[in-house]
């Protein structure tokens, strides 16, 4: 899953982002809510009001939003992703869709936001990836499903995405993108104004430093660790998690760090006796995918 936080607005397991399309879907709405674009040197009467308005916009973007808004943003993102050339067409099979959504929501009930109703779609693509979108929307590629060897592996791939949504990593990626843009705008506008104390501007940056500067790998590791916890609570053997990392396209350096954190968790935190790895359901879903994409 990739997060390119300067401009990324979607989280995915194998480090590829669809930031442009999501930005187009969400940018105007977020900007309108925050009042960005109306706050310029022309529209304010003095430096003090310029500084105050810009920083208020930053704080509004960074503040929490109602779940209904998050859900609506996710719907816009999903439409934008489907419209992206090369993203892949959804595989419209009732049995496949029911299986994926039941499994995702079973995992979701063990997450940090159990009240979310998750919607998972399988898209026809040779890529090996799963995308987490704000509001509870998940897209998983047929290429990844066909590469997996067990239902436990599938559960972990989905649990990683559930964790990114439950912990609002996907939503915060949007906020980070927008807040950086607003802070950049603020720095340019304040530089053109005279006698503006910069302490408020610096304070705003420091208040959001953790969200803005958190390294991608730490968020990936957090989602991995939570994914392991979620599938263990459901009853799947989490020792398959490293195998999933080996099947997706991530850098060797990132893979090494994520393997280290997973192995530590697996060796210290869980009673792994009697957990499930394989069922016959995954093979059946693979057959459905192969038939649907011939």
UniProtKB/TrEMBL annotation:
Family: Belongs to the peptidase M48 family.
Protein name (record): Peptidase M48
GO biological process: proteolysis involved in protein catabolic process
GO cellular component, one term: membrane
UniProt-listed PANTHER family: METALLOENDOPEPTIDASE OMA1 (PTHR22726), METALLOENDOPEPTIDASE OMA1, MITOCHONDRIAL (PTHR22726:SF1)
Cofactor(s) recorded in Swiss-Prot or TrEMBL: Zn(2+)
Domain Peptidase M48: 109-245
UniProt-listed InterPro entries: Mito/Outer_Membr_Metalloprot, Peptidase_M48
Keywords, comma-separated and alphabetical: Hydrolase, Metal-binding, Metalloprotease, Protease, Zinc
Gene Ontology terms for molecular function: metal ion binding; metalloendopeptidase activity
Cofactor note (record): Binds 1 zinc ion per subunit.
Protein species of origin: Uabimicrobium amorphum
């Amino acid at each position: 899953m990739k997060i390119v936080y300067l401009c990324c607005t979607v989280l995915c397991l194998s480090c590829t982002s669809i930031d442009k399309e999501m930005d187009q879907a969400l940018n105007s709405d977020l900007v309108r809510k925050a009042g960005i674009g109306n706050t310029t040197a022309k529209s304010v009467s003095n430096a003090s009001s310029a500084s105050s308005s810009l920083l208020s916009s930053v704080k509004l973007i960074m503040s929490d939003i109602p779940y209904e808004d998050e859900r609506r943003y996710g719907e816009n993102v999903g439409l934008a992703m489907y419209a992206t050339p090369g993203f892949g067409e959804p595989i419209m099979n009732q049995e496949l869709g029911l299986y994926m959504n039941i499994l995702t929501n079973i995992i979701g009930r063990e997450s940090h936001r159990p009240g979310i109703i998750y919607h998972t779609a399988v898209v026809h693509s040779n890529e090996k990836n799963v995308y987490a979108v704000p509001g509870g929307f998940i897209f998983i590629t047929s290429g990844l499903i066909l590469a997996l060897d067990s239902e436990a592996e599938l559960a972990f791939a989905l649990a990683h995405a559930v964790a990114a949504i439950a912990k609002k990593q996907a939503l915060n990626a949007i906020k980070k993108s927008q807040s950086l843009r607003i802070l950049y705008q603020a720095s340019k506008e304040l530089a053109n104004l005279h006698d503006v104390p910069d302490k408020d501007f610096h304070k705003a940056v420091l208040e959001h430093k953790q969200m803005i500067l958190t390294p991608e790998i730490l968020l990936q590791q957090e989602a991995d660790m939570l994914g392991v916890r979620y599938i263990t609570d459901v009853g799947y053997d989490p020792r398959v998690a490293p195998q999933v990392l080996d099947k997706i396209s991530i850098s060797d350096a990132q893979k090494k760090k994520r393997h280290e954190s997973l192995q530590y968790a697996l060796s210290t935190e869980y009673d792994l006796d009697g957990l499930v790895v394989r069922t016959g359901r995954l093979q059946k879903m693979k057959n459905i995918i192969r038939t649907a994409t011939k």
